[in-house]
Design goal:
- It is a single chain.
- This protein has a domain of 66 residues.
- 37% of the residues lie in helices and 9% in strands.
Length: 119
């Protein structure tokens, strides 16, 4: 017989999610606490949002808090994949083309060098 430990996040008497580790369950519970606080903040604001919209926005912000916190601190977030492209070097015609680093190639095995016999 196997014993399985499960951590269940319960909110207002309703089971929300089940986790294998206490750390994951605590992190999810904390995210739900943040979402509840954000929902109350949006509810008290002078915005015309429906309850489902406020819930969606609250959950999005709570789930993305690692990205949102720097923005709230006034730090401009770095955009992924928007770095300036490097200018291509001029070709003289004698250079070999350089393969794109994003290409995936099958792993090549090194060819062993033949052993020289002593004479």
């Amino acid at each position: 017989m196997a014993v399985i430990v499960k951590y269940i996040v319960v909110r207002n008497g309703e089971e929300k999610m089940t986790f294998a580790t206490k750390k994951e369950a605590d992190a999810h519970d904390k995210m739900l606490d943040i979402a509840d606080n954000l929902f109350e903040f949006l509810d008290n604001a002078d915005l015309k949002l429906s309850e489902t919209q406020m819930e969606a926005v609250s959950l999005l912000l709570a789930q993305s808090r690692d990205m949102v916190m720097p923005i709230l601190r006034g730090i401009t977030p770095k955009k992924k994949g928007t770095s300036a492209p490097k200018p291509a070097p001029e070709k003289t015609g004698s250079e070999k083309p350089v393969p794109d680093s994003t290409e995936t190639k099958p792993a090549e095995k090194p060819v062993p060098k033949p052993k020289r016999s002593k004479k």
